[in-house]
Design brief:
The complex is a heterodimer of chains A (402) and B (306). Chain A is an alpha+beta fold and 402 residues long. Chain A folds into 3 domains: 93 residues, Dna Ligase, domain 1 (2-Layer Sandwich); 128 residues, ATP-grasp fold, B domain (D-amino Acid Aminotransferase, Chain A, domain 1, 2-Layer Sandwich), CATH 3.30.470.20; 146 residues, 3-Layer(aba) Sandwich (Rossmann fold), CATH 3.40.50. Helices cover 36% and strands 27% of the residues of chain A. In chain A, a hairpin with a 6-residue loop joins strand 3 and strand 4. By secondary structure, chain B is an alpha/beta fold. Chain B has 9 helices and 14 strands. In chain B, the strands form 2 sheets. In chain B, strands 3-4-2-1-5-6-7 form a 7-stranded mixed sheet, with helices on both faces. A 7-stranded mixed sheet of chain B has the order 9-8-11-10-12-13-14, with helices on both faces. The radius of gyration of chain B is 19 Å and the shape is globular. The chains are: A alpha+beta (402), B alpha/beta (306). At the A-B interface, helix 4, helix 9 and helix 13 of A face helix 4 and helix 5 of B.
Chain lengths: 402, 306
């Protein structure tokens, strides 16, 4: 689960990480009040969306799609500028490198006191899958896209790892400060920041913390000017506050609804809907559809505990997508029994008035019984015994070929 | 031979009195797996009725090992308690000189897994498979040892080793070997979580050293770099032929595809990169899982095994 920058900064403050004063705003009036309250000559007016690249993004009008403003993060030097920027941001569509061309509507704004910047750094904490512990990664090339830095100047990225049980070693933190060329007060500041962030990462079950840029101010303070924080959804049971921080408007409504039915669904751009048991097999089904010249409309794993209800819900979700011109059901029965799936598929198709071609591939537990159920029903359904054959059939059917 | 478990391995089930534990314990017993008991704290002294026998329940893994001499502990404990169950099993096995832990549970917090894996790694004689996996199976002459949730009946004893991150895609690989008349030595599902116990290389190394195994099918998926590292290892160390497939060629970047670990992030972890690493390492690549059988036949023929 991702949260907004303004929420991340509340957590930073609690953890003892230095941030500038700032105010979360929903309206232009809020933004003006924030400017008055902050009493700072310079303020940053920042779009709040769950995607990076905001500064270099572009704002468009929701209805006309006309360009409104370049840059989703603006530095304002007066009350009038705050007003102008807030008007240009709130309710607009922000398109960044990470949002895709459809962009995201900005419903939240953060107005933050300005800060004198001596140097910009990059800092991130994340789970290193290979090292099986937390990786702390920093670079002197702040404000830039880290992937670009990794590609062009990998030597500018410094890494340390926490101990899986004992946490961050102070010596490693000091070492990191040296590598970033920090000394005196700034060095102490960074070490204490790394300690605070490591503790927060574990206490809050984070999956990532990214600060880009982390800045050294003219007076040598190390300040988090950005905050990108994600949490491990698997740990939400021990953090009831996570639900309060969740911004549903930032999440794909249909994916959330699928999740509530025990389904794992991701919408794609193709025309062939897929309903599969197991994540690996679901991906493989998409891949094979593509190999046979089709385009998958979605990833959908119905999971091992699928029921008649969840399969009906899955059909409904697939058919909500107007691009869908055919459906491939691919089941390798383990715990799931193919005949149960067959009966559910028939029921769902009848209930939803299925209008597009349907190919079902069964293998594993009760696949013969499952095929019999389908062969003896009134539904126009094609069956196949392998994934390749099923994929080929559905691709041909959506093209109007038998 | 086979790897890590053999036909007669004794299996203890942590969480045996729960719905999943009882259901799969029953399926395992039906497959002739030697289920010797279970563990549920507070329910020690009870018994669980399986189709072929009645097995005792213990309060702790340590007690269960003492009483049954089990060499495998299989975990069906809910996610929030699963990491503690792994640690308990690891400590208990360490005292007895080693053993195999298989954790089926999906949805364990990643930071819990970091600590649990660190504990297991302290004990060279203790191995963890999973979590979020279908388990491990060694088919025998009649049934076999099934420490997991896979459908037993699709397997047959043979000479192909299988290792996979996925559940149902492993079954697909099994069916593919069967379609060309080959059985399996051992099939290992290593799971789709970002932080887990046994990895590809552990499995490949074990298969390389297993006389029963003559070739391996390896199934990867997008996310992380385990496949690339395995390919590197294969190029340097593996003499037996490998057939490889990677799921997720059509997955969009930045989206989690079901498994917690199946995500392309920052342009890394794509199927294209993994396929390329496989090819560079001399692995026989199947682009379509329905082709695994045919590619396997080609690999076996090239090696003079068919």
């Amino acid at each position: 689960m991702d949260i907004h920058e303004y929420q991340g900064k509340i957590l930073f403050k609690q953890a003892g990480v230095k941030v500038q004063d700032g105010v979360h705003c929903k309206t232009v009036e809020d933004a003006l009040n924030a400017y008055d309250y902050l009493d700072s000559k310079v303020v940053a007016v920042k779009s709040q969306i769950h995607a990076g690249g905001r500064g270099k993004g572009t704002l468009y009008d929701q209805e006309t799609d006309n360009l409104v403003m370049e840059g989703g993060v603006k530095i304002a030097f007066s009350r009038d500028e705050v007003k102008e920027y807030a008007q240009n941001i709130i309710g607009r569509k922000l398109v960044t490198k990470q949002t895709g061309s459809s962009g995201k509507i900005v419903n939240n704004l953060y107005v933050e006191a300005g800060c004198s910047i001596a140097h910009e750094y990059y800092l991130a904490l994340l789970v290193d899958r290979e090292a099986k512990t937390i990786l702390i990664m920093a670079s002197t090339e702040g404000g830039m896209d880290i992937e670009e830095v990794a590609e062009k100047t990998p030597e500018a990225i410094h890494k340390i790892w926490t101990h899986p049980v004992d946490g961050l070693n102070e010596k490693d933190a000091l070492d990191m400060a040296d590598k970033l060329g920090l000394s005196g007060h700034s060095k102490q500041d960074l070490v204490s920041m790394l300690e605070s962030l490591s503790r927060m990462f574990i206490e809050k079950d984070c999956s990532m913390i990214e600060i880009n840029p982390l800045v050294k101010s003219d007076s040598g303070d190390m300040i988090a000017l950005d905050a990108k924080v994600s949490f491990d959804d698997n740990a939400s049971f021990r953090h009831p506050w996570m639900e309060e921080m969740r911004d549903h408007s930032e999440e794909e409504e249909v994916e959330t609804r699928a999740h509530d039915h025990g389904l794992s669904y991701v919408k794609l751009d193709g025309n062939i809907g897929c309903l599969v048991n197991g994540a690996g097999l679901a991906m493989a089904s998409m891949d094979v559809i593509k190999l046979y010249g089709g385009e998958p409309a979605n990833f959908l794993d119905i999971g091992g505990g699928a029921t008649k209800e969840s399969i009906t819900a899955a059909f409904g979700i697939i058919l909500e997508d107007d691009n869908v011109e055919g459906i491939l059901v691919n089941i390798f029965g383990g715990i799931i029994q193919c005949d149960m799936v067959a009966r559910s598929v028939i029921e769902a198709s009848n209930e939803l008035g299925l209008q597009v071609p349907l190919v079902v591939r069964f293998s594993g537990t009760n696949h013969i019984e499952g095929k019999e159920v389908l062969d003896n029903c009134d539904l126009d359904v094609h069956t196949s015994s392998t994934l390749a054959e099923g994929a080929e059939k559905i691709v041909n059917l959506t093209r109007g070929e038998e | 031979m086979s790897i890590w478990i053999h036909e007669d391995s004794k299996v203890l089930i942590q969480g045996i009195t729960g719905k999943q534990g009882t259901f799969h314990g029953t399926k395992m017993d039906e497959y002739n797996t030697n289920v010797v008991g279970g563990v549920t704290p507070g329910k020690g002294g009870q018994f669980v009725e399986l189709p072929n026998k009645k097995v005792p329940v213990f309060n702790t893994v340590s007690e269960g090992l003492d009483e049954t001499g089990a060499d495998v502990s299989l975990i069906y404990v809910p996610a929030r308690f699963a990491a503690a169950a792994i640690v308990e099993a690891a400590d208990a096995f360490q005292e007895k000189g080693g053993g195999l832990i298989v954790c089926i549970t999906e949805g364990i917090p990643i930071l819990d897994m970091i600590k649990a894996v660190a504990r297991v790694d302290q004990y060279p004689e203790v191995r963890l498979i999973g979590p979020n996996c279908p388990g491990i199976i060694t088919p025998g002459d009649v049934g076999g040892c099934k420490a997991g949730i896979m459908p037993g009946f699709i397997h047959a004893k043979g000479r192909i080793g299988i290792v996979s991150k996925s559940g149902t895609l492993t079954y697909e690989a099994v069916a593919q070997t069967m379609s060309v008349g080959e059985g399996q030595s051992t099939c290992v599902g290593i799971g789709g979580d970002p932080v887990n116990g046994t990895g590809f290389i552990d499995c490949l190394d074990a298969f390389e050293n297993d006389p029963q195994t003559v070739a391996v099918v390896m199934i990867g998926e997008i996310g992380g770099s385990a496949e690339e590292e395995a390919a590197d290892w294969v190029a340097k160390n593996m003499t037996k032929p490998i057939v490889g497939f990677v799921a997720g060629s059509t997955a969009p970047p930045g989206k989690r595809m079901g498994h917690a670990g199946a995500i392309i992030s920052g342009g890394k972890g794509t199927a294209a990169e993994k396929f390329k690493a496989f090819e560079n390492a001399g692995i026989y690549v199947a682009r379509d899982p329905s082709e695994i059988g045919n590619v396997l036949v080609r690999a076996l023929k090239d090696a003079g095994l068919r």
